[in-house]
Amino acid sequence: MYQFPKDFLWGSSTSGPQTEGRFAQDGKGDNLWDYWYRIEPNRFYQGQGPEKTSTFYEHWEEDLDLLLETGHTAFRTSIQWSRIFPEGRGEINQAGVDFYRRVFEKIKEKGIHLLVNLYHFDLPMALQEQGDGWENKETAYAYQEYTRFCFKTYGDLVDQWITFNEPIVPVEFGYFYDAHFPHKVDAAAAVKVAYHTQLASSLAVKACHEVDPNFRIGIVLNLTPAYPRSQHPEDVKAARIAELFQAKSFLDPSVLGHYPEELVEILRERDLLPDYDPFELRLIEENTVDYLGVNYYQPLRVAAPRYAPNPASPLLFEQFYEPYVMPGRKINPHRGWEIYEQGLYDIAQNIKENYGNIEWILTENGMGVEGEEKFRKDGVIQDDYRIDFVKDHLRELHRAIQDGANCKGYLIWTFIDCWSWLNGYKNRYGLVELDLESQKRTLKKSGHWFKELSQANGFEK
Ligand code: BGP
């Protein structure tokens, strides 16, 4: 038996923008995704936008009943900033405030541990339009005010707060690359956005502890180790730099309170350091997180760049490292992501050895599969591949815990099939199937299995 520690949390993660949907008179303001979909629907898989998602705003009570049916002892979702402050700051949308209160109360009534994330890629559009979004330092202060409101309003119900989910993703996809709105391709803007996001996270940690020193707040990072193609010094260097950009850019300031010197040097040499004040660096140093959330789907494998960069082209990560496709890798063909369970063990070791073995929770891990209907038998999707995927990762997590990892829970992505940014409804991740036509919810085999896993606090070898 792989037995997990007493009080280990079992549950799932989701986000407001991917589940709630828009409704007439709900008073929600646009966020970046609502806006972008309106002006460029062609950028979304089969033109599927964020209007309906999984209609949680309408079906939340029914959905929360399913939490217990699938064995949840913990649940993570996010508040949409634009639902509470439609313009990002100023006037409050009371319907939105009440909605989250009802949802959180119900979760607590069920005895479920509640983790609430305050930002999941969803900046209120008004702040982008009027103030240049995260390129403007003011956005960090607007964010602090919004989070302070949440700590005061819901602090009695929330067990663990989260400042940001995967903050490197909007930096990389929205500013270095042409993948998420505002798709700028501008390294100087990207660095500014990253710094202002970190500043915002530290400001939220500060506000949270000001509201109540006993509140617990963390950040969720996609912490993949970077594995070099070979031990050639240039491949090793590429991996080191990849990790600086992808992981340490937020991990170090959030947990250790300062930026890695090598990262600062790389930026300084290219004249990319953002405007900063010593007061802000002190604020970051003094407001580190209480715990970490770790999302893990795939490892990062890199090699030294093959070509010297065109000096006139915009600075992209490829100037430092390029993706390495390892022959013989195991892959989830639907998402195109490598599956490498041992990465989880390596993350745990890294946190233990280099980050003071800070407490952490695995906040996302899961398998997105296209066309799951073909696995239906007797009315239930037989997603044994998902059960195997989770078990394989849990074996590595178990081994890590045996070796001293301070991991307190496992949250699968995700609870009910939901809308997935650029991929719409293509890949399904849920323990519960969502019929897009009827909005009917049906447990998959993995949903039943997850309950057994949670009740046994482990599984048979
Ligand atoms: C994570 C995000 C989630 C979720 C997940 C699956 O990076 O935090 O919001 O979407 O990835 O990825 P995708 O939806 O792109 O398949």
Automatic annotation (TrEMBL):
Record has Signal as a keyword: no
Taxonomic superkingdom: Bacteria
Keywords tagged on the record: Glycosidase, Hydrolase
Class of the enzyme per the UniProt entry, highest EC level: hydrolase
One GO-annotated biological process of the protein: carbohydrate catabolic process
SUPFAM superfamilies documented for this protein: (Trans)glycosidases (SSF51445)
GO CC annotations, alphabetized: cytosol
Keyword flag Nucleotide-binding: no
InterPro entries: GH (IPR017853), Glyco_hydro_1 (IPR001360)
Pfam family, one: Glyco_hydro_1
GO molecular function: 6-phospho-beta-glucosidase activity
Gene3D superfamilies membership: Glycosidases (3.20.20.80)
Protein EC: 3.2.1.86
TM region(s), chain numbering: none
Family statement drawn from the similarity comment of this UniProt entry: Belongs to the glycosyl hydrolase 1 family.
UniProt protein name: 6-phospho-beta-glucosidase
